[in-house]
Amino acid sequence: MNNLVHLDCSLRDGGYYNNWDFDEKLINNYLAVLSSLNVDFCEIGFRFLKNSGSKGPCAFTTEEFLNSLLIPEKLNIAIMLKASDLVVNKKFNFDNLHELIPVKSSKSKVKLVRVFCHNENINHICPLFEFLEDYGYLSACNITQVSKKTNKDLDEISATLSLSKVNIIYIADSLGSLSPHQIKKIAKSIRKNWTGPIGIHAHDNKGLALSNTLEAIKSDITWLDSTITGIGRGSGNAKTEELVIELSKKNKKSLNLVPLIKIITEEFNPLKNKYSWGTNIFYYLAGKHSIHPSYIQSMLSDSRYQAEDILESINYLKDQGDKEFNLDDLYEFRKFYKKKQKGNCIS
Q1: pTM for the complete prediction?
Q2: Which residue(s) pair with 139 in the sheet?
């Protein structure tokens, strides 16, 4: 148990609901609560390359912003990059990298840099990890939509990353489709070529995020993600309040839950009432049929979509195969189900 690393990414993942625009008082309170819970890392936000639309400070997580915060001494800070900001036309862009990571770790509050990466960018992202090692940062590669990867895919990805300087490979259940029995198989496939730490980022479409995370520990997956109240894109993630209880039980350590309960009651529950993350029948069906959760999130937040409309869209999407989220697609889906009102049951 001593080698387990707990990473909370509430603001980074929760920012999908409010454009990463969190109040500074909330952020400082949140950081203090994580420290009191002995959480190891806080992934406080993304570091996007460009601002498309109005986004808050946790979308960019600049050095200036981090220096303005009250970060507890024992809490390590992480940020996340997008591989698509660094791989342009199948070539690694060092100019973009220097813009995103302008200083060495010795001059930054950041200790860990994670990058989320789709299949097409895995072979091109490796220069990032050599750069981060030279600059003194820990690095992690989040393999997205891992539930759709074959054993061959995982063999190839882990072989590629094993030749790089990356420190941690994360399996990200982006579609919320995994069940506990699948975790062992995925870990085994990655272990064929990879001897370093593995992490898990579990989504809760099917209500299995915590179960998947606890099962991952049995497969020697040691980096564990969670968010307070499960806040995160779509159905959300494994809940920090549940994971800290389970870990404290395994570690046989006492835990003061009062500060956590207070911030949930005063800060996160009002946000949840406003944005309504968490699993429901639509997210469950999306997880079952490997549909990107952002489609469900977008329809639930759009008053034009009634329950029947969402079900028709799910029926359509489940037959489309691998499909990355594209907001423009929703207009095409509306045209589709407006023409086909058959009321098919989903199985």
Answers
A1: 0.87
A2: 113
